[in-house]
Amino acid sequence: MLTLYSYPTLFGVADNNGYGLKVFAFLKLAGVSFQHEHLFDASAAPRGQLPYINDDGVAVGDSDAILAHLSTSRQLTIDAGLTATERDQNLLFSRLLDDLYWVMSFSRWKDERFWPAFRDALLAEHSSLDAAGLDRARQYNFQRYAAQGIGRFEPAAAYARGLDDLALLARRVPPEAFVHGHLPTSADAAIYGFLANIYFSPIPTPLKLFLVEQPNLVKHCETIHGTVMQQ
């Protein structure tokens, strides 16, 4: 049996982290049956990071590695029709979303304007959490941001990076279809994973305010969300 281990829900999405939601959406869109276990503690995960899967005793971490493993082991066809150029584009989307991740995380944990609302939402939805534990998690994230670099940015400069990422997505996601045509692929799952964690949040970060003004991104996010949450 396949089990996905990822962070818990928030704001109506199946994982409050873009990478875990990406894998969740991929599994749903590809028609793969799985169990979903939510964790806050990633210490037992490969590389100490979520998400990861246990595939009949084989543990695989890293969202891209998970998608590659499942595509091969289950001979999934979700990306079978992609051209070499489209596969190259998927890699570019993946790297762009890596950049967007840090800005989105910065907006939740680092920015003093939005941290209280994010903290209170977690506490309201997950009774196992407490304020002291979230403060410790916040300090840990500060260390990560400093090491990665985004923590050395002033907020306006940090958001400029994320807004550039969203603007590029707004130029590349078609208004009436999915990224590569009329059927969703892994690229759509990946984009949804991050957009949904911005779009469905009520917290008015600069990323959220920009995203809601992009009708094609809103439609893409709502379409994928409706599909994966009904299955």
Task: Tell me what you see in this structure.
Helix content is 58%, strand content 7%. With 231 residues, it is an alpha+beta fold. It folds into two domains: 2-73, Glutaredoxin; 84-230, Glutathione S-transferase Yfyf (Class Pi), Chain A, domain 2 (Up-down Bundle). The protein has a four-stranded mixed beta sheet, covered by helices on one side. 35% of the residues are buried.
Topology, pairings included?
Elements lengths: L1 E5 L11 H13 L4 E4 L13 E4 L2 E4 L1 H11 L10 H26 L5 H11 L5 H18 L6 H18 L13 H14 L6 H6 L3 H16 L1
Parallel strand pairs: 1-2
Antiparallel strand pairs: 1-3, 3-4
Helix pairs in contact: 1-2, 1-7, 1-9, 3-6, 3-7, 7-9
Low-confidence stretches: none
Arithmetic mean of pLDDT: 96
How are the strands ordered across the major sheet? 2-1-3-4
CATH architecture designation of the largest domain: Up-down Bundle
- What is the CATH fold-level name of the largest domain? Glutathione S-transferase Yfyf (Class Pi), Chain A, domain 2
The shape, in one word, is globular
Summarize the structure.
This protein is 58% helix and 7% strand.
Write a concise keyword list for the protein shown above.
2 domains, 4-stranded mixed β-sheet, single chain, alpha+beta, Glutathione S-transferase Yfyf (Class Pi), Chain A, domain 2, about 230 residues, 9 helices, Glutaredoxin, about 60% helix
